[in-house]
Records
---
Amino acid sequence: MEGRLDGKRALVTGAGKGIGREIAKRIAECGAEIFALSRTQEDLDSLKAEVPNINIMNVDLQDWDKTREEVSKIGHIDLLVNNAGVGCRLPFIDTPKEEIDRLYDVNVKAVFNVSQVIAKRMIEKGEGGSIVNISSIWSRTAHPDASAYSSTKGAVDNMTRCMALELGPHNIRVNSVNPTFVITNMTKGQEHTVTSLLERTPMGRFAETKDVVNAVVFLLSDQSCMISGESLRVDGGLGVY
């Protein structure tokens, strides 16, 4: 079966709900041993009840040292998905320092932190690996009230390319997945807030969770063994503008 991940060990951040939860479940279905990280114990407990063989980790990614300590405990990881993220919709001139710090702590600094720990282990083992960073189409386009969020995703895109450059000699691939607005249980009913995106989407629909999950699993698997440093848009063609 294409996309199988048998024998691999994978870590997914932000795995308690939404896209991250579905990514973790799919990776487990594909045969990998999965470590699911979230700051919300209740979400982890329900995930564990649903998929008993998943290993759960209750970690607040805004705590740099604690994150490093806990991630170091799990040993070698072959596949990493930096999915955890937070958002903010405020005008540029009204965005307070506290919100900027929160977004950069989770969306950027946590990617640095977790990836550093995991990449070092990958290099030590010498068998390569794959890292997928969840970014956004907002990394490339301007939207009202999104300067803080968009700037973090722009940072993720360029970090992805730099990581691919430096880690490539160790056979570690690094890519990002850049979705449009994704319909999840958490975002249902919010479609009206981004109608302008839908109007400019050639395929005429927003993404579903499975669309993002499929892209992530492809980039983790050997089916994409020669792809690195790419930002894969999952946007129904919106990015052609």
---
Amino acid sequence: VEDSDDEEDLDEWTREDLRQLSDFEDIDHREKLFMHEWNVFVHRFKPYADRDVPAALAAFAKYRGDALRADPALRRMFVLHLVNQWDFGVVE
């Protein structure tokens, strides 16, 4: 059970994440929103090591499955995110 301090911390963390993402000028607004949504998900899911990332990716896909199926742009960003994870050796 989360208490109000946890909610305030998440709100503050969320604002800071959005502020940091806004600093990127070469990234499309929708890409920033996807990155933020992934960051919030990972902040809550808390993978502790690379071995936990595949489960986090699967959980995110399940959590956002309807939106990923309905929105080709969102699906493309998620697939690119998966490719990046593979390129950096985080997933096999």
---
Amino acid sequence: MGAAVAAALVALGALAAGVLIGRYYVPDDRELRRAARHARSFARALNFVLARDRDAAVDELMRVVDDNVSDLEPYFALGALFRSRGEWERAIRVHQALELRPEADVPTRARALYELALDFRAAGMPRRAIRAMEQVLALDAGHDGAVRALCALYEQQGLYAEAARAWERVAQRGADVPRDRLGHLWAAAARAAAAAGDVGEARAALREAERYAPGTPPVASAAIAVAVACGDERAAAKRAREALVRAPHLAEVWVAQLEACERRVARTEAEPAADAQAAEQRAADVDRVVSERLARAIAEAIAEAGPQPDLLLARARVRADSDPAAAWADARAAVSARPDDLAARVAAARLALAAGGDDDVRGELAALVAPAGPLDALVGRPWRCATCARRAAAHAWRCDGCGHWGTLKRAPIAAEADAAVPRDRRAAPRGA
């Protein structure tokens, strides 16, 4: 009897020892098995993404989420997939939920807000994207991707002063920010403030632009706009004449601004018209005075900068009505210096028509260079970005395609088609 009791006690002790050993000393491999399942799901999801089967990738990630709701990485991956599929509402909900999680630390919140800002930008809500990017920088002032995306959003919304200040903060942290970019931004801010009638803000922005890029064409354009906003047309005309000498390749731009200034000055100098006939004569006198002043200003620029083709073409256009023969001579000289410039050749052909010639030649040329003729489609968008090859009908300091500044040049004959707008998705530059 005693032996049986002893054996039973030994068995119970062994059982208890086994339970304790199994509970506290044998490792629990459930987490390992779960991690292995998740790794396989992530690998399959990656394979589906590479195969462009995003629906299957979403299904794989949903299995991971259902198995473990505390892991945040599958949610970030799901949000990015939703955004890539154009399901912006679902992506926004995912990233908003991640940002509002009670256990989310500051880096996680900053990451969720950055992804949320990308969702807003992709969904066409730039103002909400700007607010989200600003929240990212409030949490992480050194977030390079947020700074770059925020600056691009500022530029797209015409908030050039804010973009310039953001880039200045980047430069203060030791990053390499080109001074000409800051000059472009402050010059654009000055032009925008001048157009809005805010003279004080325009002058302040112009001072910043001159500090970063003194004497450059965008700063000269901003100075002209600020002078016009201040009501000083003569100072604006003086700036335009100086720009003709410094940047003759943009003569078309400067002559247009100079003409507007001189026309306003001539109108103030002309006597008021008493009747319709006097008003018509007054308008003709204003046109004559403006044409003479423009021709004189371009001649002075040619004397200082030399016979640049753009200056010669500009003077030819100005003198086309008053002196067709002299205009044709200027156009012929410009074409001889730049024989591959189709726009120059069309302008020269039109001036040749005005100067006279054989009737048959005139008829053929008239059909060729007519405003709606076959060559007009080629020269209707004569400006092309040197970075992305996007073409534009009018000169601008910022390319709407790639966002680069000061890259619009005269397009050659065989200009490429407009390039697609590059995506700015990475949180950091490649190779960082």
---
Amino acid sequence: MDVPVYLWGWVAFFIRVVIFAPIIEEIIFRGIVFGTIRHKSGRRWALVITTLGFTLLHGVNPVSFVQILIPGIAFVLLYEREGNLAAPVITHAGFNLISTLGLLAETFL
């Protein structure tokens, strides 16, 4: 059975958005940037700066800003509570999975 070419694009998109992006973004924003700023300037500034950076990376229109800002704060709080990146990576992947499934439904239904 031949798989349509456009389907492979969706598979690649899914892998990139649901698997790779959460891992890479959490390592950078929570693991490196948050940890560095927290060490130098405290938890509050680290939360504000990394969450704003994370949010701006994903877009600047008012609706998407709020939609990304809230999970960004949650990812920081999970990282702080758990003391490792596993919880924010898994939560981030779940958030991206739900968003991707919504996009697929909107596209094909």
